[in-house]
Amino acid sequence: MSKLHDMGMQDGEHWVAFYCPGCEYGHGIPVTGPRAWQWNESFDIPTITPSILVNRGSSNPVVPVCHSFVRDGKIQFLTDCTHKLAGQTVELPDFDPVDENQRSKSKLPDHLESKFEANVRAYQRRSRFRIIVLLVIAGLAVALALYATFYK
Ligand SMILES: [Zn+2]
Predict the structure, then answer these.
(1) Which of 7, 35, 105, 118 has the most CB atoms around its CB within 10 Å?
(2) Is residue 3 within 8 Å of residue 95, measured between CB atoms?
(3) Residues 131 and 102 in one domain
(4) Are 76 and 124 found together in one domain?
(5) What is the per-residue pLDDT across 8-57, written as a single tens digit (0 to 9) for each?
């Protein structure tokens, strides 16, 4: 058993997870790729930087806001956490991958959410563009029909 769980490659990024004793579920983060956290590559005495902010602004009301530093195998909870371990530093427990409770049930940590939101916005822009193209085609079809009607 070790403190970090190797989630392997997910969409081209290497992910690891730890069990958060404040939230009582796992937090997964990418450690390679453009949005990666820095990690000392230790599963037993992990250090991860920068801080990990989960559920900023309590966007999911059923889980706490959690803001922490993982350093030397310990987890330091900052005072903006809304769970019972706010302001405390505790030993990171071993991660048991068999325990369903240790799996992440949160959304992605915060700076990943903003990337997700950017994807949603890009999708909405593409949808708007499709609607404009359809309107232009419909307009041309009407113009053509009118032309055919009046210039027979
Ligand atoms: Zn947490």
Answers:
(1) 7
(2) yes
(3) no
(4) no
(5) 998 899 999 999 999 988 999 999 999 999 999 999 999 999 999 999 98
Gap from CA of 106 to ligand 1 centroid (Å): 9
- Same-domain status, 123 and 98: no
Task: Enumerate the β-bridge partners of residue 69.
Answer: 76
Q: From ligand 1's centre to the CA of 19, what distance in Å? A: 8
pTM over 0.85: no
- Range of the structural domain that residue 127 is part of: 109-152
Order of strands across the sheet with 13-20? 4-10, 13-20, 25-30
Calculate how far, in angstroms, residue 23's C-alpha sits from the geometric centre of ligand 1.
4
Q: Quick: pLDDT tens for 73-115.
A: 999 999 999 999 999 999 999 987 666 655 554 444 554 545 5
Q: What residue has token string 């997910």? A: 10
39 plus 101 within the same structural domain: yes
Structural domains of the chain, count? 2
Please tell me the distance between residue 31's alpha carbon and the centre of ligand 1 in angstroms: 18
Q: What's the start-to-end Cα distance of the chain, in Å?
A: 83
